[in-house]
């Protein structure tokens, strides 16, 4: 029973997150896609573009700090792989370049993004080749549990940050409302006193 449970969890844990997108890129235009990646997460991409004479497409992958993670010019079909040591947002941009005096047409771009986690080396696993099958499954299950725990901790941290931001925003809105009401009350009082003084000068009221 335990072995079956381990095998099921191992299979589920080894399944990477996979999604694809297909779009048309206008001549001499660029299209960028952004997505988040967790620490030590491996991003694998596979692209394919339609062939149009006189037109080329380049791609570049950058992180939020502008560092180039992957880049290639005049692409047709290929793959790329990169990872980050910390939580990061990456951006992949496709740029169309059309020759001068060339009537441009839309090019179809197909992109498949696959997310997974980097496998630990055999040294980190303590000579995994010497482990028994059950011990290897337990070790893989332990690594999977650590990844799941890391995900929960990251979600909890982001939830805490969102809650703190929400509370700060509510506090600022409250202070702004009190300030606005004070200004309105002060302005109304000034108007009443001003009109009273004006009417008294004009001898409209005593």
From TrEMBL:
Enumerate the spans annotated as GOLD domain. Answer: 30-154
| Domain of life where this protein originates | Eukaryota
Q: Where in the cell is it found?
A: Membrane
Keywords, alphabetical: Developmental protein, Membrane, Signal, Transmembrane, Transmembrane helix
The record's section on PROSITE patterns has: GOLD
Q: What GO terms fall under cellular component here?
A: membrane
First and last residue of the signal peptide: none
Chain ranges passing through the membrane? 173-195
Q: Do the record's keywords include DNA damage?
A: no
Sorted alphabetically, which Pfam families does this protein's record hold?
Answer: EMP24_GP25L
- Specify the protein's topology with respect to the membrane: Single-pass type I membrane protein
Q: Does the keyword Transmembrane apply?
A: yes
In which family does this protein belong, per the annotation?
Answer: Belongs to the EMP24/GP25L family.
- PANTHER family (alphabetical): TRANSMEMBRANE EMP24 DOMAIN-CONTAINING PROTEIN
Q: Can you name this protein? A: GOLD domain-containing protein
Q: Give the organism, scientific name.
A: Drosophila navojoa
